[in-house]
Specification:
The chain is an alpha/beta fold and 434 residues long. It is 48% helix and 14% strand. The protein has 4 domains: 131 residues, NusB-like (N-utilizing Substance Protein B Homolog, Chain A); 37 residues, no CATH class; 56 residues, 2-Layer Sandwich (Alpha-Beta Plaits), CATH 3.30.70.1170; 194 residues, Vaccinia Virus protein VP39 (Rossmann fold, 3-Layer(aba) Sandwich). It contains 19 helices and 12 strands. The strands form 2 sheets. Strands 5, 6, 7, 8, 9, 10, 11 and 12 form an 8-stranded mixed β-sheet that branches. Strands 2-3-1-4 form a 4-stranded antiparallel β-sheet, with helices on one face. Helix 4 packs across helix 5 and helix 5 packs antiparallel against helix 6.
Length: 434
């Protein structure tokens, strides 16, 4: 009999591979469709397998190559993902007995393959041991070792090594595999820390304070959108690094602010909260369905100073020249700082994408800088950790725009946040129009 939980995980992994579906979206949709037939424990295992296999795919495939005489490209996508699931459970999930991982994988291969497929899966999985992973750490070539032990594409490792030493790159890649903590931002328009802590305790929700004002880590929480505190708009989900962009922008009550790449609205609504819901914020995005997300977030949080607009920030609009007091540009990027949240990023991005994305970033920065008043503040940020998307874009811009200069933040010209247990990787730079 096939285990329903693992079968759902397999179907999600197949879709991610064949249709380049996003892990989080596909996982949430599958859980939603099967909510009546699965419990919280099932959801936990499905999530663990899907995120685990997606995160560790390169490493797992190296181990398959060690034992398979058939090339990966020749293996059926269903069988390949069954193998990946089995190996992930054997090597990385201590609570699941090897026998269970093997037997469930063989059962799945009987349904999604044929007799020889199940024999093939059985033969490989019975050979797998934790030492197969440990042996990868003995690889002498630094790039190959880091890539195979942390499951990071070679090109990303090479790019990171251009501006970081071996130890730093190993740490970045290792931290990119950590399951992210649930970071939230308290909505200062509706509550304060003391009252919010009280409500968390009443609801028996464990939390951990952070070094940043307004931010907490919630522990052991699932289906957060179903929490009454969330529905009441007392908090929203936001990473500490992302929230820092709004804090560095330092918006004041009564100001006219632009968030030119605003969806889904986490930073936009934080700007509004810092302004005490007094002033005016324009929130742009190129897709209408994404501006709707900003509107939904604002409504839940009790924010009414945000005006959304479907607008392409790469196209200059003279109507807005010298209009805004403050501008936030959290520009599109490769997203390499948030791999732990979206592991599919590292398999979908390619080295060639750097040139294309930096063109967009430069266009947005050049155009939107013209919308800033003299004496105004502009914050440029990305959730990436490559210098090409960050320092290089800023330096290129400053070379062509002599009326702008960098404002240091706590003595730093550039804020480079590397991914760790609490925070995503992020880049932030604060500019003033002289």
């Amino acid at each position: 009999m096939i285990d329903r939980t693992r079968e759902l995980a397999l179907k999600i992994l197949y879709k991610i591979d064949k249709e380049q579906a996003y892990t989080n979206i596909e996982l949430n949709e599958t859980i939603k469709q099967n909510r009546k037939n699965i419990n919280e424990k099932d959801i936990g295992l499905i999530s663990e397998i899907v995120y685990g296999v997606t995160t560790r795919k390169l490493t797992i495939d190296e181990i398959i190559k060690k034992y398979s005489k058939i090339r990966l490209k020749k293996i059926s996508p269903w069988i390949l993902n069954i193998l990946r699931m089995g190996i992930y459970q054997i090597i990385f999930l201590d609570k699941i007995p090897k026998s269970a991982a093997v037997n469930e994988s063989v059962n799945l291969s009987k349904k999604y393959g044929h007799t020889s497929s199940s024999n093939f899966v059985n033969a490989i999985l019975r050979k797998i041991e934790k030492k197969d992973y440990e042996e990868l750490f003995q690889i002498q070539d630094d790039i190959e070792r880091i890539a195979k032990t942390t499951s990071m594409p070679n090109w990303i490792v090479k790019e990171l090594l251009k501006h970081n030493n071996i130890k730093q790159v190993e740490e970045i890649c290792t931290n990119s595999n950590i399951r992210p903590q649930l970071s939230i931002r308290i909505n200062r328009l509706k509550t304060n820390k003391e009252n919010f802590y009280k409500k968390l305790k009443e609801n028996k929700i464990n939390y951990k304070e952070t070094e940043k004002e307004d931010f907490l880590i919630l522990e052991n929480i699932k289906n957060i959108e179903n929490l009454e505190l969330f529905r009441q708009g007392l908090f929203t989900v936001q990473d500490i690094s992302a929230g820092l962009t709004a804090k560095i922008l330092c918006p004041n009550s009564g100001e006219y602010v632009l968030d030119a790449c605003s969806a889904p609205g986490g930073k936009t609504t934080y700007i509004a909260e810092l302004m005490n819901n007094n002033g005016s914020i324009e929130a742009w995005d190129i897709h209408e369905h994404r501006t709707k997300l900003v509107e939904e977030n604002a409504k839940r949080l009790g924010v009414n100073i945000i005006k959304t607009k479907v607008k392409d920030a790469t196209i200059f609009d003279k109507e807005y020249e010298n209009k805004f007091d403050k501008i936030l540009l959290d520009v599109p990027c490769l997203g390499l700082g948030v791999i732990k949240r979206k592991p599919d990023i590292k398999w979908q991005r390619q080295y060639e994408d750097i040139e294309e994305i930096t063109k967009i970033q430069k266009l947005i920065l050049n155009n939107c800088s013209k919308y800033l008043k003299y004496g105004g503040i502009l914050v440029y940020s990305t959730c990436s950790i490559l210098k090409d998307e960050n320092e290089n874009v800023i330096n290129n811009f400053l070379g062509e725009n002599k009326d702008f200069e960098i404002l240091k933040v706590e003595g730093n010209t550039f804020i480079n946040i590397l991914p760790d247990k609490e925070k995503d990787g992020f880049f932030i730079c604060k500019l003033v129009k002289k």
